[in-house]
Write a structure and sequence with these properties.
Blueprint lengths: L7 E7 L7 H12 L3 E7 L5 H10 L2 E6 L4 H7 L2 E2 L1 H6 L4 E4 L5 E4 L2 H13 L7 E5 L3 H12 L3 E6 L2 H11 L4 E4 L3 H6 L3 E4 L20 E4 L4 H12 L3 E3 L2 H16 L5 H15 L1
Parallel strand pairs: 1-2, 1-3, 4-6, 7-8, 7-10, 8-9, 10-11, 11-12
Antiparallel strand pairs: 3-5, 5-6
The protein binds NADPH dihydro-nicotinamide-adenine-dinucleotide phosphate.
């Protein structure tokens, strides 16, 4: 790879960001497509992340992915936003428009849709889904699930946050706190975990017998390890969040470069890294 003044700059911005597999995925695709661009990871710890994201546009970055905890600030930093980003209330992808402002997108919805279809193996319409968590990832998931007409239950540590999510994006969804997880999961066709508890070493309450039903954790690597092990031990078919990661990355790549990258190759590369580093 040769870098010149014409080389375009892309980055993932977050705090923390060192664990991110996005540079691996996007630099692989840039190389495969022969695009003169590089993609780096930027650790942003800031009292005003929206202002800093606007500064990155002025500094010449052509596009950004945004991860925890800056997705709401990313939407605020943009001059305009896609309908999905506005509905979710957060952005994970920014693209610089001609005037120099960011346009905000939320490709987590596309990523979740791919992961969900793979885990369930069929159209989710009319199926019973238990969604654990009510943060940014849950908002993307709830938007997709509500649009597909699933029978949704949102279970969260703070029930008030589950209520707010249901009111905003999934009217009609049942809401509960984690104490009701076991009984709700008993009746579910799939359980989706979007709670970030694996990052802090916390665990879910005990699950009922899975009897081969799918359990999708949106995190991956170490953050997903214990939750997926517990699900597997209870008889659930476990899936991690790597497919969602690659799906949201591919949707961002299409927005930036108007071409579809090789998702299977990127997924295999991510799986190989996660297998080595846990
Ligand atoms: P948020 O910080 O927005 O939300 C965190 C959620 O986890 C909240 O519902 C919170 O509950 C819950 N939670 C946090 N700690 C605990 C705990 N100790 N016990 C129980 N519940 C807890 O995070 P995101 O929604 O952005 O991310 C959630 C997960 O999804 C992360 O693991 C992230 O890595 C993953 N993710 C994966 C993506 C992918 O591409 N695969 C994309 C985006 C996210 P409360 O409301 O009570 O605080």
């Amino acid at each position: 790879m040769s870098i010149s003044p014409a080389t375009k700059l892309y980055a993932v911005v977050g705090d923390p960001v060192a664990h991110s597999l996005s540079p691996l995925i996007h630099n692989r695709w840039l190389h495969e497509a022969g695009i003169d661009a590089v993609y780096v990871a930027l650790h942003l710890k800031s009292p005003d992340p929206a202002a800093d994201l606007r500064a990155l546009a002025r500094a010449g970055y052509s596009g950004l992915n945004i991860t925890l905890p800056h997705k709401v600030a990313a939407l605020a930093s943009a001059g305009s936003a896609s309908p999905e980003a506005r509905q979710v209330g957060a952005a994970n992808t920014l693209v610089r428009e001609n005037g120099g402002d960011w346009i905000a997108h939320n490709t987590d919805v596309d990523g979740f849709s791919l992961a969900m279809a793979h885990a369930l193996g069929s159209d989710p319409r009319g199926r019973r889904v238990v969604l654990i968590g009510a943060g940014g990832a849950a908002r993307a998931a709830a938007l997709h699930l509500a649009q597909r007409g699933v029978e949704l239950a949102i279970v969260n540590r703070s029930k008030a946050n589950a209520d707010a999510l249901a009111k905003a994006l999934a009217p009609g969804a049942e809401t509960a706190d984690l104490g009701d997880l076991n009984s709700l999961a008993e009746r579910a066709d799939i359980v989706v975990n979007s709670a970030s508890l694996g990052h802090v070493g916390a665990s879910l309450p005990e699950l009922p017998a899975g009897k081969g039903r799918p359990f999708l954790d949106l995190s991956y690597g170490k953050a997903a390890r214990d939750t997926l092990a517990a699900a597997r031990a209870a008889g659930w078919a476990p899936h991690d969040g790597l497919r969602m990661l690659v799906g949201q990355a591919a949707a961002a790549f299409r927005i930036w470069f108007a071409q579809s990258p090789d998702m299977n190759g990127a997924l295999s590369a991510c799986e190989a890294i996660v297998a080595v580093r846990g």
